[in-house]
Every structure is written in C-alpha cells, then in structure tokens.
C-alpha cells in the first residue's frame, strides 16, 4: 500500500509540473474574450507551452458557456458553431464543465487540470496494482509532463487502464462478468476519445477462448454487446437533443485534411501533395483501410499465439492495434503518446524500445512547436537551417520506425499482468517461449 501511495505522490508531482509548464502561456493580461496577452500565439509556440485546452477557449463557444452539440452544427467550410466541439460527447461535456465557473483561458486551463488530475492518479494506482514498479513509467515519464494537460486525454487513458484492471484484478467474480463490466468502461472510453473501442474485439476473443473445453460464445457476444450498448446509451440523448450538432463532431473529423495540424506520416511523407484534392480524397480511403488491415493482422497473430499457448493475448494484441492506429491514422497529435504509455507498463517490452520511443517523442514534442514558431516569425526553418527541423525529422521518423518495430514486439511479448497458469499448453503443442522482445 505504501508503494502505491508513493506512486500516486510521484504522479501528482509530474502532473503539477505538467500544469506549471502549460500555465506559462497564461496571462498576465487578458483581452475582452479572456484570451491571454500579450502575444499569446508566439509565446505558445516559442516557449513550447501550447495546449489545446487553452487554445480552444476561443472558437468553440466554450468561453460563452454554451452546452455542447445541442444547438450547433458545421458550416460548409468545415468550421463548427453553436458549442459543437470536434470530440465525442463525454469529452465535450468535460470541456463545458471545465469552463463553467471561469471567464479566461487561464481559468479554463486550471479548472480542466483539476477535473482531469484524478484520472491521472487513478491510472497510476491501477497500473501499480497491475504491474508493480513498472508503473513508474507512467508516474515519472516525460510524456506525462508534456501532455497531461495538452488535451482532454487523461480520462480516456483511465478508461483503458480500468478495463484491464477489472479483467485481471477483480477476481471475486467470473471472467464473463469482469469482462462485461470492462466492456462498459471501454464503451465510455469510446464516448471520450474513440480509441478504447479498438480493445473490445481482443477482449471478446480472450473471453471466447477462456473455456477449457469449449468456446464461450455467449460471453464474447456479451462483451461486444455491452460496449455497443454503453456507447449508444451515452450518445442517444445528444442525438435527440441536437442531431445536427452531434453529427457535426464526427463530420468534422471525417473532413479533416492531412496538413501540418495532423502531424502524421502522411503529412511529413507527402507534404508536396497535400494541396491536391485527389490526394486528400485518397487519404480518406487509404488510411482507414491500412488501419483495418493492421487490426486484422494483430488479431490473427494473437489467434496463432492462442493456438500455441492456450490463452488469447488480448493486452499485447490491443497494444499492437493501438500502434497500427497511431502509425497509419491521418492524425497523430503529440498527446497520443499518453495512450501508448500504459502499454509500456502492461506489456513486457525491453527497456531499449521504451527509452528510444520516449527520446524520439521528446524530440518531436518540443521541436514541432519551435518549428511552428520559426515559420510564424518568418525565420529559416529548413532541414539545413538549424537543429530545430533536424530534431523534428528525427522525432517524426524515429517515432514512426519505432512504431513499426513495436507492432511486432508487442505481438511477441507477454503481458505483465499474467498470473502463473494464465498460459496453458494445448495438447500436441510445444511449450511457449515468450520473453521480453
């Protein structure tokens, strides 16, 4: 217990540092809309203290305390109005709640940090219960400082980790019931930031194959049904209250172009093509198809491991599916590293992979804003003009190469939450030899 308390204290210190870093961009003066002055944008990029939380105070009617989705929609040019935000409904409600009692972007950042910090602490507690000292990777990691309050991601990360905790540590009830409740939590995660829905299929396959003599088809269907039902129950009230506003958040993402704001391999690899309508249209098809292919490969490899070892590796498969999403989706925002970080705790990956990824991410997370600052100020920013652009390319392509490797590594690795006997050898199969990859 004392170790878990210490873990949470260290997490709290990292969260405090993360807030202090973002708060450097606030004040000391404010204009009539509550926007920080002077030179807000230049400071945000140049001092590397930008956050979406502070930035979106203006432009989404958050500053006007408009309840999201109900009265809004999307313009033909893709801009949102009437309180609609570009995130699923629970994130929208969280944003509205953070703005309720404040009238400046500084207050919005502080209130949002207070709302989300408990989710970061809960994540630390659950990871500590699941994987022991490896949870320090969450508590003391640079991404937690850089991105904890960059966007509204701590609640959705908590949902993903809570699902794993329920399945593997709530042992007083049957696996089917544990997994069903975990699926409900993943459904809530979908209503926050979509990506936890990826983990429903691996979880269902884990339940399906958990029977010693026959497949648990009913349990697997129950898992899928619980996650879908949860997502529907959460979304339906918003659909009824304002269908156009609810739909606009999804339409905004579907229309999103591959540009500098997406920060994905598709932008950095095809910058000269991004002005083409044909290219943008192709990306709307190529990116999701490749993601689906990566999901299918991960699930199939997981099934082959099940046939060899007797247990479906749902956590490593979930990690690989997330890697496929991060690598191939047309948007790769900096704070997405928070999504991946718990899997470095939950899967036995060699430390070299983790250290290399954190270094590449740090290079990208700092240099992208310095590069934007140079462009904003009209200063030279090419690859031959200084270390900023060089560090950015090291970060972007180093991270991409590591994601390719991690896709394979995760699928070869064991989970840190496995208990003795979790992997049983099927008759006629060789004993498993799974190690840290």
Automatic annotation (TrEMBL):
It is a multi-pass membrane protein. Keywords: Cell membrane, Membrane, Signal, Transferase, Transmembrane, Transmembrane helix. The chain crosses the membrane at residues 80-101, 108-127, 147-167, 179-208, 220-247, 285-306, 312-331, 351-372, 392-411. Residues 417-437 are annotated as: Disordered. InterPro entries: GT87, UCP010361. Residues 1-22 form the signal peptide. It is found in: Cell membrane. Belongs to the glycosyltransferase 87 family. This is Glycosyltransferase 87 family protein.
